[in-house]
Amino acid sequence: MKYIITTYLIFSISFLMAQTQKKLKIEGITTNGETINTSALKNVTINIYEYNDKIASYESNLKGQFEFEIDMNSYIMLEFLKEGFLTKRILFDTRNKNIDYGKNYIPFNFEIVMLLKVEGIDADDIDFPITKIEYFPEEKEFLFVEKYTNEMIKLQEKIINKRTKEH
Q1: Residue 7: what are its φ and ψ, rounded to 5°?
Q2: Residues 86-105: pLDDT tens digits?
Q3: Count of domains for the chain
Q4: Is residue 112 part of a domain?
Q5: What's the pLDDT tens digit per position in 9-67?
Q6: Is 132 part of any domain?
Q7: 63 domain residue, yes or no
Q8: Domain extent at residue 147
Q9: pTM (predicted TM-score)
Q10: Which residues in the chain belong to E strands, given as ranges?
Q11: What is the CATH number of the domain that holds 47?
């Protein structure tokens, strides 16, 4: 009888933890940066890494759209790959003591602009997450870390402009 009660308690605790451990829905579109009607990029590979371990892979559809879920209370890197384009990365840090794991958060929606490879630009020069998304307790939502994102966009533009002027 003691064994049955212990087993029941273990399963009950596991079930309760599973109920509170929600996922964050990610939605978006991959483009080449031109007008939204003509720039959708289909078949962009999206690799998902959790703490540097690849856990899943998806592809954008014919309209460039993608949709999937990532774990809460984790450190997730999204990697966007397409032949002829520079790789882009986005960091989601869903670890925060203020997150209500019982809440259904608004899906995080964004556009990822893929840049054509340019001769002379070493992909390693811009091998960093272009943006970081974190939970902001004041807004009670996941948002871009504005300062980090602005700095990374400026750095990316500086490297690309420097390389294109040299060639």
Answers
A1: -60, -45
A2: 899 999 999 999 988 888 88
A3: 1
A4: yes
A5: 444 444 444 445 589 999 999 998 776 566 899 999 999 999 999 999 999 999 999 99
A6: yes
A7: yes
A8: 23-166
A9: 0.80
A10: 23-31, 45-50, 53-59, 65-71, 75-81, 88-93, 108-113, 129-136, 141-144
A11: 2.60.40.10
